Structures are given as C-alpha cells and as structure tokens.
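Thanks for the sequence, V.! I ran Bifunctional enzyme IspD/IspF right away. Repeating your input here for the record:
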Amino acid sequence: MPVAALIVAAGRGLRAGGDGPKQYRLIGGRPVLDHALAPFLAQPAISLIAVVIGAGDETRYDGAVGHIADARLSSPTPGGETRQDSVRLGLEALAEAGFDGSVLVHDAARPFVSAALIGAAIEAIGANGIAAIPALPVTDTIKRIDVAGQIAETPPRDRLVSVQTPQAFRFEALLAAHRAAFSAGLDGFTDDAALMEWAGHPVATFPGEPANLKLTHPEDFIRAGAPAAGNLVVRVGTGYDVHAFTDGDHVWLGGVRIAHDRGVLAHSDGDVALHALTDALLGALAEGDIGTHFPPSDPQWKGAASHRFLSFAAQRVRQRGGRIDFLDLTIVCEAPKVGPHREAIRQAIAVAAGIRVDQVAIKATTSEKMGFTGRREGLAALATATIRLPEQE
Ligand SMILES: Nc1ccn([C@@H]2O[C@H](COP(=O)(O)OP(=O)(O)OP(=O)(O)O)[C@@H](O)[C@H]2O)c(=O)n1
Ligand SMILES: C[C@](O)(CO)[C@H](O)COP(=O)(O)O
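Predicted structure:
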C-alpha cells in the first residue's frame, strides 16, 4: 500500500511571535520545516511528500528546502485559513495527483519527529487500519472549566492522553471526511483524528514520543534549544563495539538481518554497527555511552532492536538544536560478507538516524585472519559521527 506524507506548514505562528512564520525559523542553523521533513525523506516506504504552505511564503519555502533534491517531494500547495483547511487542500492536491493508499499528516511545527515514530505510524495504519495516531498519557491532572473559569469537571486521568502528529489515515476515508465537514460548514476540528471520529470512524492509538514537541509559544523555541545567533560548532565522536559469535543462524548488522551460520552473544540484538554508531553520536554529544542510557542490566532492553538506540542518540542531537552531518562506519569480520547488504544497511541507518542516505558511509574489512575477528570468534565495528551543535546551549 503506497504511503504519502502531508506536511502542513501554512500557519502564521501568531502564538510563537518572532519575525515570520515559526516553521521558517532556525533551530541548530536549519529551518524548522527542514528538520520536520528530513525523517520523512529518510523513510523509503514513503513514495510522495506534499507540503502545504502559506500564500506569499514561496520564497521562504525555497530558502528552507531548496537544497532538497528528492523527486518524492512535490511542488508546494497553497494552504487555507485554518489547519483543517490546509489539510483538506493538501489532500485534494494528493487526490489530483492520483494518490491512493495511506497518508501521514504531520505538523511542520513538530521538527523533532523521529524516524522511529514515522515507522510506528506506518506500521499502525498497516494494511487494514482506517486511522491511527500517536498518543501520550497526560502527567498533569486535567480539568474542564466553565465560561467563568470555575472547575466544572475533573475527568479521570487514566483514560486521558495528549495526541501528536504524524497521524496516519486511509487516504480515501480522510479525504471523504474532510469533504463532508467542508460541505457541512464545520471548521472547528483541531486535528484530523477528531474529524474522523466525527465521520464515525474508529481511531486507534500508538505510543507517541515526549520529544515530539509542537513549537507553539516562544518558550518552546527556548526549550528546543534554538540558538539566538545560530552559531554551530562541529563536533566529532567515535564509537567501537564487538560481539562474540555463538550458535545461531543470523546476525543483525546496521539494522539488517543477515543469514549466517553463527549468531551473536548479546543482551540486545547484538548489532555491533548500530551500537558503534550510537556511541559515536553520544560521544560527539558528550552524553555518556550506550550503556549509560540502555543498561544491559535492564530487562527492557533484552533482545531490543538496536535501531531504537541509534534513533534515540540522533534525537538527542536534534533536541540540543544540532544536526548530524555524517556517519561513517567500518565493519570488521571475516564473514558474513557485508558487500551484498551495503545499500540496505545504509538505508536502514539513514532511516534510524533521520538523515539522508548520502550522509552515511559503510566500509568493511577482514583482519587478514589475525586476532579474534580473524579467527571468526566475533565481529567488530568502528564508527565516526560528525555533528554540529549550537556554540552555547
Ligand atoms: N492555516 C493553517 C494553520 C496551521 N497550519 C499548520 O498546522 C500546524 C499546527 O498549527 P499551529 O501550531 O497552530 O501553527 P500556527 O497556526 O502557525 O500557529 P498560531 O495558531 O499560533 O498562529 C503548523 O505546522 C501550521 O503551519 C496550516 O498549515 N495552516
Ligand atoms: C494536530 C495537533 O498537533 C495534535 O496535537 C494539534 O491539535 C494542532 O493544534 P494547533 O492549535 O493547530 O497547533
């Protein structure tokens, strides 16, 4: 089933203040919209990306995303007065382009969306879903107030969630719901899930991410680490990991399952490539190492898929207002052969880190039958991460 992404970026950002719409402001030297788009561009399952922009924002848009050379990104569509209007106009543009399948609707104002969350949205809508949205349990007690500001009700918190984007929908169903609401003159829906509920569709939830903040008020930009002057400094981190072979029939390397006559001994899935890359990013951030954040003593990481570790470290770079420039990896083993899987590994790493494939390099070498890798006792990986971070945080 084809998957499209619809990024709404036509708002004026009145609550955020500042000069011009917030989606064009810089975080870590890059526009918010560019941050929001990158993990969608890194997701190979997405075949079409449409962006809805405000009237008169064409030059800002070109300045923000003009560097992106990806045929999946279509020409921007003019938005409407409200978010609901902008989504509807974006859906109509996708319909005009003959799209059918699933659509992920995302706010440009959520620049810290992770590749993992986009993957979860695609998985949640799956082959048969109608609507699925990311949700987080609320931690504050929520009250409903009356017009005078008096508390009218305290709903039980265990059934309350706050919801985010990307929200995933069956395209035809969402388009029909938007058209029906438009014909009925209803324009008060603050998210697309509410519109689907109104149209009578079930809406499923999947776990959202606390870091997937919506930039709404000026203080959100401060929390997001937007540097005042936008000065970024280059930082380089290195990572190294080894795992011993054991009985088994496959290994995980760079997020790809490779059939092999041995497995690896590990608490997680034992992916040395992703572990070395995670440590390289954490090194560049000076935020400890993989064991600091995902202790092997913690049962929740038993058998964990290591792309989660890399996505976490990449997210930390973005949360600190930074960007990943390049990831370079060397895998050391006599077998399995890495060459046939190189491109799949590059893709998987780019998706997990939320960067482009051309920002990832994979090299492999044997150790000429010397040492533990040469004796086929295990495999190793070395990684270098080049990132940029705001000068003063
Ligand atoms: N007419 C509109 C209004 C909003 N949006 C988009 O919807 C998302 C969520 O909206 P919000 O955070 O409310 O953004 P703004 O409308 O820009 O903010 P404000 O309400 O403070 O003006 C943003 O990515 C925004 O660009 C849009 O495409 N068209
Ligand atoms: C769609 C949304 O991001 C879900 O939390 C939110 O409802 C958008 O609200 P806004 O007032 O348009 O920012």
